[in-house]
Amino acid sequence: MRLHRASLVVTLAGFALSGCGAMPSSVSLPDVHVPEFFPQSPDAGPEATAPAALKVPAGNKLTIVLVGSGYQDYQCVDKEGAPTWSLTGPEATLYDSDTKQAGTHSAGPTWTYKDGTVVHGKVIAQAPSIAPSSIPQLLLAATSDAAEGGAFAGVSYIQRLRTVGGLPPDYGCDTVHLGAKLGKQYSAFYLFYKPAT
After folding, report:
1. What is the rounded CA–CA span in Å between residue 139 and residue 123?
2. What pTM did the predictor assign?
3. Residue 6 above 70 pLDDT?
């Protein structure tokens, strides 16, 4: 059982980058207004302003863009004699631009599409979020995917961009609370790429 899942409202005013397209002025998690996350112009999507460190290698093309909304889960553990919040994995719902549930995101990290196809990833680069006190943006290489058929078959890279929330607090984990669990609300874009050929 988690210590708390307090309601979190993160204001993004002042953090939207030029050319990003439509961004919400505020996001109430986990009830994200999904369409507001998606830019009106296909040339102004989140990939257009991804940090240089998170650019996908040439020869890959963007095929799927989803919004994830849910929790980053932590457990209070002893790490080299110091109690620390340790990430145990995400648990989030993935939505498409029509506000329809498109899949789930879980520990691994693992993404499961509504057609049953699954892709796993490994972090190869990260960059700070554009929103304060939020989990970093990531570039992940796919380590395994659906062998054939389905939306996630052949995925090569995944980006986690425009993250909001999700960081554990700097309190609540001490020797008295070892083993305690905590879920912190977050949202992010997940972009899936496949080889261009």
Report:
1. 6
2. 0.79
3. no
